[in-house]
Amino acid sequence: MSQNALLRSVKGLGNPGTARKEARKTRLKVASPPPAEERSDHFAVRNNVRCAGVHLIVDLHGAKRLDDIEHIEETLRRCVQAARATLLHIHLHHFQPTGVSGVAVLAESHISIHTWPEAGYAALDVFMCGTAEPDKCIPVLREAFGAEHVGVNELLRGKDV
User: Annotated catalytic, 51?
Assistant: First the structure.
């Protein structure tokens, strides 16, 4: 089955016809964007620098409960709440024999986690835009996993936009 046919069958799109595309074009009205001072572009401001978002690269060393998928899900939910972000979806995968990888998809971006329980190590990305507060996730993660050491590196994404 071709990719287009598969997409149509899964999404119920039908056969895209030229006539239908033309009719759709005439019905669509394109609005002018509001002036920059009135628009909410969801960019973040960090240390007086405007950027697309704050991306924290977090390393947890000497951590515990890294193979407990329920605990990890609850911790991600607590991070979202602490950061005042909007949770859209959480997807976690438990590897055999050990380890968990997953993501909390947010309206403001995401939090991802990858764990190596046998090494007591977890790698997380906490990327948020707008008024969300990604730094608020760090104490939640430290406490939830009993980490002996937490390393955080910060990237300001899209600061030249």
Answer: no
